[in-house]
């Protein structure tokens, strides 16, 4: 019996995604680097601070992207929530947490014109009660802080830990990721951080070298956080015949699988014979 494996689009087995918080002016330079190298990112924004570039907020981290520039700047990437005003939400009453997330969603959606369905926890703050609440307000994943140092897919979308912060073994992990060749696994390289840190640490060359090293590779799918979530849900919805002779895709989007050494695209709403 041939082994059937779920794949990323076009039959790939590796995905790269980037995740950056706060929406500060250095995002412009970071996005330029991403675009030049075919890399996609998710950018978590605090809509309540967009027009408030006062010293109390910007003292050491710089100004935020103006509201009128956001839609064009982040085109091709994902805009995601980071709460309205960046509180340490595990210390807040749940009514305020709900308002922080919902009002941020509403404001961001009014700017970008599509459903905003992701979050990164401000100050890395969360608890079980917050996790259990998020799907009720339309949030489908949230990133936590820290480094997993591995390339595993998320087991809990509401405790999504990245492979590494960009200041943590970034180039070493990039070399390890590039060298991966066991197609029986699906690998995800997830990098997080804040673009202003490149200004603060004077190390823009780090992300430039990383992007050139890992960008535009034929064996890597470049995706935003929500694209990964959506795609994996499509894969999980596939309905296989008991003997593996065919598969039905009830979703609207395509999924890709491999059967032995043959890659199949399973278009949305279709049944495909595998033998």
Automatic annotation (TrEMBL):
Domain (NodB homology) spans 14-223
Keywords, ordered alphabetically? Hydrolase, Metal-binding
Signal sequence span is none
Coiled coil (residue ranges): none
Name one matching Pfam family: Polysacc_deac_1
Q: What is the protein's name according to its record?
A: Polysaccharide deacetylase family protein
Q: Which organism is it from?
A: Clostridium cibarium
């Amino acid at each position: 019996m041939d082994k059937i494996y779920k794949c990323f689009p076009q039959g790939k087995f590796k995905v790269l995604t980037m995740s950056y918080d706060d929406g500060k002016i250095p995002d412009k330079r970071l996005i330029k680097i991403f675009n030049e190298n075919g890399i996609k990112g998710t950018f978590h924004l605090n809509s309540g601070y967009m027009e408030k570039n006062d010293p109390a907020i910007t003292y050491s981290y710089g100004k935020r992207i103006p509201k009128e520039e956001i839609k064009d700047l982040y085109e091709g990437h994902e805009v995601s929530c980071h709460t309205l005003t960046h509180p340490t939400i595990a210390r807040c009453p749940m009514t305020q947490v709900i308002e922080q997330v919902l009002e941020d969603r509403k404001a961001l959606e009014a700017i970008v014109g599509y459903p905003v369905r992701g979050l990164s926890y401000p100050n890395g703050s969360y608890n079980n009660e917050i996790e259990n609440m998020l799907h009720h307000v339309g949030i489908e994943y949230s990133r936590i802080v820290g480094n997993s140092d591995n390339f595993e897919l998320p087991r809990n979308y509401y405790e999504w830990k990245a492979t590494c912060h960009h200041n943590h073994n970034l180039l070493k992990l990039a070399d390890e990721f590039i060298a991966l060749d066991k197609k029986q696994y699906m690998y995800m390289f997830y990098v997080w951080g804040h673009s202003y840190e490149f200004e603060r640490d004077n190390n823009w060359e780090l992300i430039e070298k990383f992007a050139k090293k890992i960008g535009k590779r034929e064996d890597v799918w470049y995706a935003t956080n929500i694209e990964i979530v959506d795609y994996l849900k499509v894969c999980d919805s596939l309905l296989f015949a008991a003997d593996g002779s065919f598969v039905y895709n009830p979703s609207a989007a395509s999924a890709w699988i491999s059967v032995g050494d043959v890659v199949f695209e399973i278009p949305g709403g279709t049944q495909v014979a595998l033998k």
